[in-house]
Amino acid sequence: MDKTIERTSCANPGDAELTRKAADDSIELVTDRLRKMMPECGFGELGTCCVMCYLGPCRIDPFGQGTRTGVCGATPDVIVARNFLRSATGGASSHAGHARELAILLLEIAEGKAPGYKIREEGKLLSLAGKLGVPVDGRPVNAVAADVARKAFEDFGRQDGQPMNWIRARASRMEYAKWEKLGLIVSNPHNEIETAMHRTSMGNDADPLNLWVAILRMGMVDNFAGLMLATDLSDIIFGVPTPKVVTANYSVLKEGEVNIACHGHNPILASKVAEWADRLEGEAKAAGAGRVNVVGICCIGNELVTRYGIPYAGHEAQTELFLVTGAIDAMVVDMQCIWPSLPAIAKCYKTRFITTVPFVRHPEAIHVDFRPEAADERAQEIVRHAIAAYKERKAAGIRPRIPDVSSTLLTGISVESLVSVLSTVNAKDPLKPVVDAIAAGEILGAVGMVGCPNPKLRDGAMSEKMAEGLLRNNVLIVTTGCVNHILAQGGFLTSEATEKFAGPRLKKVLTAIGHAAGLGAPLPPVLHMGSCVDNSRIYDLLAALAGKLGVEISQLPVAGSAPEFITEKAISIGSFFLAAGILVHLAPAPRVFGSPFAVSLLTEKLPGLNGGKVLVAATPDAAVSGILAHLREKRQALGLPQA
Amino acid sequence: MRRVVYDPLKCTACKTCELQCSVSHSRSKDLLAAIFESPPPLPRMSVAWTPAVNVPVKCAHCETAPCLLGCPVGAIRRDRGSDAVLIEEERCIGCFSCVLLCPYGAVRLSFDRKRAYKCDGCTDRISEGLEPACASSCPTGALAWREVEEVARGKTALTAVRDAAALARGGELAAGEGSPLGTILKMREEMARG
Fold it and tell me: Is the per-residue pLDDT at A231 higher than 80?
């Protein structure tokens, strides 16, 4: 019988159990390496370390006694802005690469070159085609799909300086006009990335303001060429998420079954592995196993759970611990957030570690070159690796230890599914109940909690404590990315969480909506909107709410928070939310503190310009009070009552 | 008796010691807050450089400390508990005799250039059971918080190895294979093998 986790404000008890096991097994974990790394380099933390040319490395003394500029004369303001732009470029490149792979897949499907895939969501395809100006009437679906894919390619190859198709199609009118005025409308993601690398290389842009505008533009690339393009195309190919209740946490691993953990980001591979896991059940049985059990780690977990309800294992920082269970036969990875430490740990437990992307490899890993044209063959090969490993592991007598912890979550909250749930309450105007509740102050505001769980902040249970604090103050939370694993494991994505954590006003409105929608229970107070690329769904939802109220997104009582971020992707996502005029809370502190210009821009000047603002707070209390103050300020400006 | 000892061969001049020294002598003890403090917290040590080697220079807290002996107003004293040589800021008259007398260049001028200041041996940190900030933050171990006796013993052992090797080479050159030293070393080798 599974033990349901009810505790929050503390680490997952499974983590503690497996950390002890790792010590017994002499396995070095991220926490061990982190301890040895402390203190981390202060110049790096401040963003004032420059290694872009061979005059350096240069580091600026933050206390003003030593060096004041780099050897080339670059000031700390320039160095910080250049470094930050390169981070944002790394993030935007990851998302653009993710999106471009899906565009290629869509064209291959349309041309019949990827027989393993099909278009599952014609409705979304047609509506997107309409927005992109692709003719749809009377045409075969595949022809429309091919044109939509070509519209995406046009964006990646555009040289005429005209705005990206995706921005024209998907940005709301009011926001578009605002971005145009600020010079943030981008034309071609590849050109922006090239220009960013060019201007930050030796001896180019030395104007901090010009560089910060480029950072906001990189945020636009991230959202429209990366997140939104990827989400749109994923939905068309793999289906729009629909609500479902799913199991999470360590107990999703099953003793006596072939366990495959999919890790990474792009659903192209994992969806196929999941499909073949079911189809090869016979072979698993022949090997003496119950079945093939696929679970999702990191954002693949989000992708698989939200569309197919596949068990939701754990987050990026738990990946090592999942291997330490000794219960995983194959860990299959695609791209992003795959720690190089993993293959060595996998080896200790005879877990087969399988890489699948040409640019994500490891000398200790098995490489299966995954291509959509041969998806079925490759997926079978991967599942058979796992079945073979299961036999080997049994023979070697490796005894798994799966912590007896589990929780449930409600997932699958796309904008479409949210609207359809809400339309059971009000068919004509589905968003009205939410807008009314915000206007009346029953919902004080909404916060998107996104990003990764960082081991640096895990001891303090940063995300859980922030969620508790916000909910108690009647703030609705939407979540994407790995932080969602934390909140799911903490039991925040259930109806019971509404009873337990939500403030009285929020509880009332969620209960009313839940019952009216026929759930028989309150709507959860934390809504799972998918993986980190699905931040575009949060933007869509905000744009819809702002449109209904007839205001800009920046005027809404909302905020974004990456309470424990790790990756450059969080930097580029945050840059977009700044461009959209939203308060962005970040912890750990972003590497901008070495630049007085950046600090004053992000905390004082930008809010006056477009509403965007950075809040740095490394403790949950400070983060919650900072966010609440912002939400109240926005409500006051709109003339709404305070909750 | 513990001291911060340094190994110039391991110093990469990353200046983490300087930075962490400043932070640990700030009011907030936190880098992101310390950089906004006024006056700024200053490092009490610095990495000196030659084209051949980097040397982290700090107060050695000498037993017969020239700065202490030479201070005309008695503003420098030895802390009984920690054995550290400390400057009492209130009593310092800013004559900088200590700066002139210190053989290392470990005494500096304060931010307003009116007082002398130097490494305080991180007495506060040590009383809390922590190592001095420079040694605990050094990523390569170029600075380390060690027993001085133990350091000396290690050096003695190294000296023996080095001199034995030099003598053996010298003996071979002087007298060929049959030198008495060569015979002794060979015998020892055989004995060690059993």
Answer: yes
The predicted pLDDT at position A1 comes to 30
The partner residues of B46 in beta bridges, in order of sequence, read B57
Q: What integer pLDDT is reported at residue A5 of this predicted model? A: 43
**A36 part of contact set with chain B, CB < 8 Å:** no
Residue with tokens 């930008």: A606
Task: Indicate left, alpha or beta for A581 from its phi (over 0: left) and psi (-120 to 50: alpha).
Answer: left
Q: What percent of chain A has pLDDT over 70?
A: 98
Nearest residue of B to residue A39, measured between CA atoms: B137
Q: Tell me whether B109 touches chain A (CB under 8 Å).
A: no
The Cα–Cα gap between A263 and A421 comes to 30
Beta carbons of B35 and A46 less than 8 Å apart: yes
Q: How far apart (Å, rounded) are the C-alpha atoms in residues A240 and A529?
A: 11
Contact between residue A212 and residue A88 where contact means Cβ atoms under 8 Å apart: no
Summarised one tens digit per residue, pLDDT across range B105-146 is 999 999 888 999 999 999 999 999 999 999 999 999 999 999
- The residue of chain B with its CA nearest to that of A67 is B15
Is B99 near chain A, with CB under 8 Å?
A: no
ipTM reported for the complex, 2 dp:
0.73
Question: Could you give the CA distance from residue A310 to residue A294 in angstroms, rounded to a whole number?
Answer: 7
State the Cα–Cα distance between residues A463 and A641, nearest whole angstrom: 28
The predicted model scores a pTM of 0.90
Mutate to test the interface with A, among B12, B17, B19 (most CBs of A within 10 A): B19
Q: Which two tokens stand for residue A622?
A: 């400070």
Tens digits of residue pLDDT in A144-174: 999 999 999 999 999 999 999 999 999 999 9
- Chain A: closest CA distance from residue B148 (Å): 24
Query: In the numeric block, which tokens belong to residue B67?
Result: 């700065």
What is the pLDDT at residue A9? 40
